[in-house]
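Re: weekly structure request thread

Next one in the queue (277 aa):
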Amino acid sequence: EDASDADADYTRVAVIGKPNVGKSSLVNLILGEKRVIVSNVAGTTRDSVDSRFENKYGKYIFVDTAGIRRKSRVDDRIEKFSVMRAKLAIERADVCLIMIDARDGVTEQDTKIAGLVHEAGKAAVIVVNKWDAVENKETNTMRDMEAKVRQGLSYMLYAPVLFLSALTGQRVDRLFQVIQDVHAQNTSRITTGALNSVLADATARVQPPTDKGRRLKIFYMTQASTKPPHFVIFCNDARLFHFSYQRYLENQIREVFGLNGTPIRITIRQRGDKEDE
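Done, posted below.
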């Protein structure tokens, strides 16, 4: 956390996506043309410029807006460079807006970029841009499009999908509420007591698996850290903890605590494992 205390109440947002998806249109729309802030801090070599912005929803720092706002065709050609740049932006952000072109749907490049966000454990919003370009064609309802996006990014079913147009400004306002929501989830802390009552309820409803007469016993569960929420579950035998049961518990946690906009991590520990982290 290199942010100073003054920045603590700012949510850091990265707008990422493939070239020409409309990142600069969105950032320019939000920040306003007048706010092309090119205040390069003396001593920083990389040309990363962050832009501060406040509205009635909160305070935001848009990360690396220099890389976005400068329409540099050169970057587009150097594919590796733009992925590297996206990686840096993702690392420094609290919330990542993954922009997808409504006309193209989810491309291979989109899955690559979204994968980086997922692996980094960041809160994410999938932003389908240029919706105005397809909206009136009756075949393409929002629900169909959302289903396609979900299919293409099936590993991040937790991320909300928002349709907007950076060109017309349609639904951009709604974006800020969604950013606040997913950020709150990504940083939320749940008490051990609350987790264990959900655990008791879940294991009563669906019995833990058995294998060759040995049943998985789950002792307790606790939250180790945030960004993203990381839970540790202690049990008698980690080998009995099948992935499907882990996913069942994850879904229960998401549902009860409203964690539907953030990745979550679960570590399974065997009692008798070294507990001195």
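The first strand starts at residue 10 and ends at 17. Residues 172-186 form the longest helix (15 residues).
Next request, please.
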